[in-house]
Write a structure and sequence with these properties.
The chain has about 240 residues and is an alpha/beta fold. The chain has 9 helices and 9 strands. It binds NADP nicotinamide-adenine-dinucleotide phosphate.
Length: about 240
């Protein structure tokens, strides 16, 4: 009986991840704020898969609670997936410090806090996997979303370092870099259909990449090529662009 801990479980991508992992024989800890609202999903997964599903109240910005939260999990999870994320309008972030701070707090500081605790446990046991959902927005700072993008860049760098550290302990770390995904987060944006993934496809991609112990996943795959091109535009040109 192996549990997977999904942090930010009310996210549209996380709900699909819960279904995919349960379908493949994992029990679930679904962690998030006001988590009892996932009762219906939890019961549905239990009935369909016969796996155990436990709902755990968790706020990734409540750093002081993280150690006790992990200590209180009866059976330690074999894997942990950090899905939680926060994206506010870039223009609002430029004038509203609280929005900028929450972006960093949710996407980076809180994620580092809980993963530091879990990574130490996995390293000691020489077992486990960690998945972090970062973003292509972290690959290069752009004027349209650099507060969010910089928090994701920091998270990607953290996951890279963690992967390097835990490699010798047999613990895999997967960095996920989605492009556009049709979720609550992007519902007000006009996204190009061909470049936009559905949450269930993203979840399948993540499961397959994690099982293969891959290091970095771009989903949809085309985003790897797009970001390769974007990263190679010389700064003297890039600073004049509006993309
Ligand atoms: N959608 C995209 O195009 C896209 C692209 C690249 C990367 N991503 C990343 O993918 C991940 C999943 O996002 P999504 O697209 O599925 O959006 P979503 O449905 O809006 O999910 C974001 C989740 O993060 C949770 N969250 C926010 N603050 C939290 C906190 N303090 N403690 C615990 N949970 C918190 C939210 O919980 P509440 O429900 O309680 O607010 C929400 O369920 C995020 O990391 C996002 O940055 C998304």
């Amino acid at each position: 009986m192996s549990y997977v801990l999904i942090i930010g479980a009310k996210s549209d991508i996380a709900k699909e991840l819960a279904r995919v992992y349960a379908k493949n024989g994992y029990d679930l800890y679904l962690a998030g704020r006001d988590i009892n609202s996932l009762d219906g999903l939890a019961n549905d997964i239990k009935i369909r898969t016969n796996q155990d599903v436990q709902l755990c109240e968790f706020d990734i910005t409540n750093i002081e609670s993280h150690q006790a939260f992990y200590d209180n999990l009866n059976i330690k999870p074999k894997g942990t997936i950090v899905v939680s994320g926060y994206m506010a309008d870039q223009k609002e972030c430029e004038t509203n410090w609280q929005k900028s701070f929450n972006t960093m707090n949710v996407n980076y500081i809180g994620a580092v806090s809980i993963l530091n605790i879990i990574a130490n446990d996995y390293e000691q046991n020489k077992d486990g996997f960690i998945v972090g959902i970062s973003s292509v927005a972290g690959d290069r700072g752009r004027k349209t979303n650099y507060i969010y993008g910089s928090s994701k860049a920091a998270f990607s760098a953290y996951l890279g370092g963690l992967r390097n550290r835990l490699n010798s302990s047999g613990v895999s770390v997967l960095t996920v870099k989605p492009g556009f995904v049709a979720t609550k987060m992007t519902q007000d944006l006009d996204l190009p259909e061909k470049l936009t993934a559905q949450p269930n496809d993203v979840a399948e991609d993540i499961f397959n990449a994690q099982q293969k112990k891959r290091n970095i996943l771009y989903t949809k795959a085309i985003w790897q090529l797009i970001m390769l091109i974007i990263k190679h535009i010389p700064e003297v040109i890039f600073k004049k662009l509006s993309i």
